[in-house]
Specification:
alpha+beta; Immunoglobulin-like; Jelly Rolls; 3 domains; five-stranded antiparallel β-sheet; 20 strands; 19% strand; globular; disordered N terminus
Length: 493
């Protein structure tokens, strides 16, 4: 769910609460709703307990629901408009993402994607990668239905040599087969695999395509030339869309939890969710709740939303107006911190571990004023010798501050990245200035122009394979390199 959806969601919640209770939004709707409740209720905990559990469900479930909706759009619903390929089939994008790509918030437009949704129920899948020239960065990110990054293949993690890797489901037990370099285990039977292949310049696309053609996925039985096991049963997935999350949250969560096995760390939580009718095999029915319980659920989701937004605003270190930290990782990284996981998904689902990529992000100038392309022009200047320190490449990407999607613009430029440096102009002192504004800064500066929306701005910096030696952005939030602040450049008040 993107910020615009969440804001609409908030409005809907408050409005509904007022309608349900007959009281002003500033009043507590739960108590009067409960007092006035004459509807028969489904068996459920008391109103206050229901509210607490529903808020917990929202925070725990937001990443699961977002992932489930993306899976439906990419691998299940052929008419979604975002469909890529069936399960266990790699879909290669011989392009970078544009404003037309709206299934995933804050999409990367640096690297052509290859997407693979894994179905690991019947047997493991072997991922094969080709030899990639040493100067080209690539990565294969393995992310499961919990939105845990459970492994990496690629330049940083395994090198640019060719190799075969095994991905197994949560119940698999066995030894590493011959010819397999490494085994990765997903915590869920369905998991997304994201291949990123560096594009060095627009003319480089045929070379990217050649690399993509070397990516392969096949069942373990085919790799070992053995008979295949019985196919997994077909699933009638509950339809879901990313745009439908705000209206169908608990229905989507019920569906998603079917494919997220319970663990010792989630046993008690899942038992609490079941008390309000949420979980695998259940069908949470909002319309069948009593009046008081409806108000409690709605307010719980609003408060959960607020906590996610607050974490995104304050859960990372503020450096020159940029939020710097690491929100993505494996199960051990999150360690049951569901709020952190929800904030990570909301900030940009499927982000990389900090050691793979760092994502400084901002909606404000160095002095804290909100970025708005309808009101001001801005500049971002990297001092001479202080470009982002990376082993691969860096970029600064522009998003609509309301939707977190790429924006349509007259030069079809969604970012400025390090491969573009040869065509850009530096200042007399060797520094590099980016011009961030909705209108062209003029022909002499257009090479350094990052087009902005006619409204709120959301900027994400990407540092792929950040250097670990000084200067470095690592450790997240306390590294020796810091992103420079954005400055207002038009003299307007």
């Amino acid at each position: 769910m993107n910020p615009a959806s969440l804001r609409c969601f908030s409005t809907a919640i408050i409005t509904t609460a007022v309608v349900l209770t007959g009281f002003e939004a500033a009043a507590d709707p739960i108590t009067p709703a409960g007092a006035a409740d004459t509807q028969p209720a489904l068996p459920a905990p008391g109103i206050e307990e229901t509210k607490a559990i529903a808020e917990e469900a929202f925070i725990y479930g937001l990443p699961l629901v977002m992932n489930y909706a993306v899976m439906n759009e990419y691998a299940v619903d052929k008419n979604s408009g975002q469909y890529k390929a069936p399960f266990n089939t790699i879909f290669n994008e011989a392009r970078v993402f544009t404003y037309k790509d709206t299934a995933i918030v804050t999409p990367n437009s640096d690297t052509p994607y290859s997407m693979l949704w894994l179905d690991l129920r019947a047997e493991p899948i072997v991922l094969s990668v080709p030899a990639v020239e040493k100067d080209r960065y690539y990565s294969v990110q393995l992310t499961d239905g919990n939105t845990y990054n459970y492994g990496y293949i690629g330049s940083r993690a395994t090198g640019n040599e060719a190799g075969n890797f095994l991905v197994v489901g949560p119940d698999w037990k066995g030894e590493k087969p011959p010819g397999i370099k490494q085994v990765f285990q997903s915590s869920t039977p369905f998991a997304i695999t994201i291949f990123r292949t560096q594009l060095l310049n627009p003319a480089d696309m045929p070379n990217v395509v050649k690399v993509q053609q070397g990516y392969q996925a096949q069942p373990l039985s085919a790799f070992l030339k053995q008979p295949a096991p019985p196919a997994a049963p077909a699933i009638d997935f509950v339809p879901a869309t990313t745009k439908g999350i705000k209206d169908n949250f608990f229905a989507y969560l019920d569906a998603a939890l079917e494919f997220v096995p319970e663990t010792p760390g989630t046993k008690d939580l899942r038992a609490r969710l079941a008390r309000i009718g949420v979980g695998p095999g259940k069908a949470f029915s909002f319309q069948d709740l009593s009046l008081g319980h409806k108000a409690a659920v709605l307010l719980a989701m609003k408060e959960g939303e607020d906590k996610v937004a607050k974490y995104l605003a304050n859960g990372m270190k503020d450096i020159n107006g940029w939020k710097v930290g690491s929100l993505f990782g494996d199960a051990a990284f999150f360690n049951g911190d569901w709020l952190k996981r929800a904030a990570a998904a909301q900030g940009g689902i499927y982000g990389n571990d900090g050691i793979e990529a760092m994502y400084p992000l901002t909606r404000a100038t160095a002095t804290g004023e909100p970025l708005d392309g309808s009101k001001h022009n801005y500049t971002l200047t990297f001092p001479a010798g202080h470009l982002p320190p990376v082993n691969a490449f860096w970029s600064v990407t522009m998003y609509d501050g309301k939707t977190q999607f790429l924006i349509e613009n007259p030069i079809n430029r969604y970012l400025i990245n390090s491969p573009m440096l040869p065509g850009m102009k530096t200042n007399a002192d060797g520094s590099l200035t980016l011009y961030i504004q909705k209108d062209s800064p003029g022909p002499d500066k257009e090479s350094n122009w990052l087009p902005a929306p006619d409204g709120p701005i959301y900027l994400v910096m990407r540092l792929y394979w950040p250097k670990t030696e000084a200067p470095s952005i690592l450790p997240p939030g306390s590294g020796t390199w810091q992103p420079p602040g954005i400055e207002q450049a038009d003299g307007k008040p």
